[in-house]
Design brief:
heterodimer, A: alpha+beta, Nonspecific Lipid-transfer Protein, Chain A, five-stranded mixed β-sheet, B: 490 residues, alpha+beta, seven-stranded mixed β-sheet, 13 strands, 43% helix
Chain lengths: 156, 490
């Protein structure tokens, strides 16, 4: 069963982040809301019967799923408080944030190190908007989050 | 009153603090593929935040300590042979002026050396060189290692009536002279008609240890004590003046100019793919507020007054005027004076640029000169759009400037990289980049020349009509294409 955008997916990523002290330490003292936009999630490749099953079982918010599929992107909102991921959910329309990250799923999938994250950002494969000073100090945390997000995502 | 040394120390400390505050040190730490000396922060490290293709080029080359030394040699030797080629080209053209259809032929263009990083016509070069430096000038280029902050070569030329007539290699560290081949030794050790060098490697290296009479600082170590390229120039000029009296006395009547530059900046400037791109770099190098830098990337000591005037122009006007002035409104794809065997790394750079374009990976393809002239850089400080554009942006360009650059349409202000994290240049999206496959094949030792207003359509027509990029009859083919495109032609 695919594991993306489901309630279980959001929870498992949040738990994975908060259960590892090194993650929290990487964003120690950080209080920020990041709009994390993931594009080209291969939702369209889901067989129709599987899509039907997911929606019928109520694992996923139907409107969110349909919007993500139609726009080929999903907007996620992450809120860190002193390094803990206190909120991770679909972003609401017009919601405020302090920094924004946007990239294709395949690019996030490729990230293995902070160096990869930096090159992808400087090359605009991941489009970062926010304060440079904060970005450079949070690279470790952003990389760790990306690794968790990708490892917890199952699209087939 | 604060001495120059005290001021330099203060500015260096302020820069280091600024780099830390921005987190540029954290960025550099993670760009290990670009850094031959992990753990060391080079001069002008901020450049790597705004020059995307150069990050990729240096990664492509693989920056080991050995590669760094080799690259410094290649930069030096190409520089030296460009000057030699210019002396020969000017002398040939003075004897046999070219017919009008050959005026812009690539064989008749040379690096007339102010500095030898962009091509120009010999006759225009002669006049502009006089305008820039005066009737007689000796210009010595002082090159500094970005990591050690040591001077590693001083090489220049003497101009009479605006034309280079003699080359003078004053000093070269053993780090680069270790690579000299037989051909180099012939030129740099001893004295030829158009070359003055030193008897051997040791002497070339020793000259960099000459001390300033007042400060006692060795020429080699001046950049360790003095802050930016202007100060380096001021720090070494007296010593070079004395050495000229001893070693180059024939040319004592000329004004002595010193130009200071670091290895990274010199490599970037020397290897600009096109002339318009180089003029853009000149604008940024001497007018660094355009990139939000707080020091200069390149210096002339003294600064020729006309440059100060030109630099007060908007970027677009500057690039256009320089292209008009030096190349009659054309744009060259630069050529190398040395063969691939001597400068294999520079050839790799050219191949990479030609295949990927000047602003890869943000733009895939070669940007036409008139689009480059209107580039809006990522800047470390807030900028004002009027500094860059001569005419208002198109609707599409304006939209991108707003959405990607955060342009305030009311004031023309754009926020800095520090506020937005924007690392990329913004270009007019309504003009399509050129594809290398649209051009005739490029010979890096020959280069090519094209009109400044080149578009994909114009390029296609010119090639279809038989233009080969060499410059022969370029005006005819350019006008023919304009006519076919329905443009009004004189």
């Amino acid at each position: 069963m695919p594991l993306v955008l489901t309630k279980e997916w959001f929870e498992s990523i949040r738990d994975a982040w908060n259960s590892d002290p090194s993650n929290i330490k990487s964003l120690e003292g950080v209080n920020e809301k990041v709009l994390w936009i993931v594009e080209e999630l291969p939702l369209s490749k889901l067989p129709p019967e599987m899509e039907k099953a997911i929606l019928e079982e109520g694992m996923i918010d139907e409107a969110l799923f349909r919007r993500a599929k139609e726009k080929d992107r999903v907007e996620l909102l992450l809120e860190w408080k002193d390094g803990r991921l206190v909120d991770f959910r679909p972003a609401r329309e017009g919601e405020e944030y302090t920094a924004r990250m946007r990239g294709k799923y395949s690019v996030f999938e490729r990230i293995k190190t902070e160096e990869d994250f930096l090159w992808a950002s400087m090359d605009r494969e991941i489009d970062f908007r926010g304060r440079l000073f904060e970005f450079t100090r949070r690279l470790d945390g952003y990389t760790k989050f990306t690794l968790i997000m990708v490892s917890k995502t199952d699209l087939i | 009153m604060e001495t120059m040394e005290e001021r330099s120390a203060r500015e260096k400390a302020a820069w280091e603090e600024w780099i830390r505050q921005m987190g540029m040190d954290k960025i550099w730490e993670r760009l290990s593929a670009v850094n031959p000396f992990p753990g060391k922060i080079p001069l002008s490290v901020e450049i790597f935040a705004s020059m995307p293709v150069w990050r990729h080029i240096f990664r492509h080359l693989g920056m080991t300590p050995e590669r760094w030394q080799r690259l410094k040699y290649e930069n030096f030797v190409e520089w030296a042979y460009r000057i030699e080629q210019a002396v020969e080209t000017c002398s040939r053209l003075l004897r046999n002026p070219p017919p009008s259809q050959e005026l812009h032929h690539m064989d008749n263009l040379c690096y007339l050396s102010h500095p030898p990083a962009y091509l120009c016509k010999a006759d225009v070069g002669k006049t502009t060189c006089q305008m820039l430096y005066g009737k007689y000038a000796t210009v010595e280029y002082v090159h500094v290692d970005d990591f050690t902050r040591e001077v590693y070569w001083i090489l220049g030329y003497h101009n009479e009536d605006g034309l280079p007539v003699h080359n003078w290699l004053l000093g070269a560290s053993e780090e680069i002279s270790q690579y000299f081949d037989e051909e180099d030794e012939k030129r740099f050790f001893g004295k030829m008609e158009i070359w003055t060098g030193a008897p051997n490697r040791r002497e070339l290296d020793d000259r960099l240890n000459r001390r300033h009479l007042r400060t006692g600082v060795k020429v080699r170590e001046v950049p360790k004590y003095y802050w930016d390229p202007y100060d380096w120039g001021a720090g070494v000029r007296d010593v070079i003046m004395d050495m000229r009296t001893e070693l180059f006395s024939k040319w004592l009547h000329a004004t002595l100019y010193i130009a200071g530059v670091s290895a990274y900046i010199s490599t970037i400037a020397q290897n600009a793919l096109m002339s318009s791109e180089f003029f853009l770099y000149v604008y940024y190098g001497l007018n660094t507020s355009a990139l939000g830098l707080r020091y200069n990337l390149f210096s002339y000591v003294p600064l020729p007054p006309i440059l100060r005037t030109l630099l007060s122009l908007p970027q677009e006007t500057f690039v256009k005027r320089m292209s008009e002035l030096f190349l009659g409104g054309y744009n060259t794809v630069h050529k190398y004076a040395c063969p691939e065997k001597k400068i294999p790394n520079l050839f790799k750079i050219r191949k990479f640029q030609w295949e990927h374009g000047q602003f890869y990976p943000h733009v895939k393809g070669i940007l036409p000169p008139f689009v480059l002239a209107r580039a809006i850089p990522p800047s470390l400080e807030p900028i004002q759009l009027r500094q860059y554009l001569e005419t208002p942006p198109s609707k599409e360009f304006l939209e991108v400037l707003e959405s990607e650059g955060g342009l305030n349409k009311e004031t023309g202000q754009m926020p800095s990289i520090q506020e937005t994290g924007r690392f990329h240049f913004i270009f007019d999206p309504s003009v399509e980049p050129l594809r290398p496959s649209d051009f005739p094949p490029l010979d890096p030792n020959k280069g090519q020349i094209w009109p400044f207003d080149l578009t994909r359509e114009k390029l296609e027509i010119m090639v279809e009509e038989g233009y080969d990029g060499s410059g022969r009859n370029v005006e005819y083919y350019s006008k023919l294409a304009d006519k076919k495109m329905g443009k009004k032609v004189d």
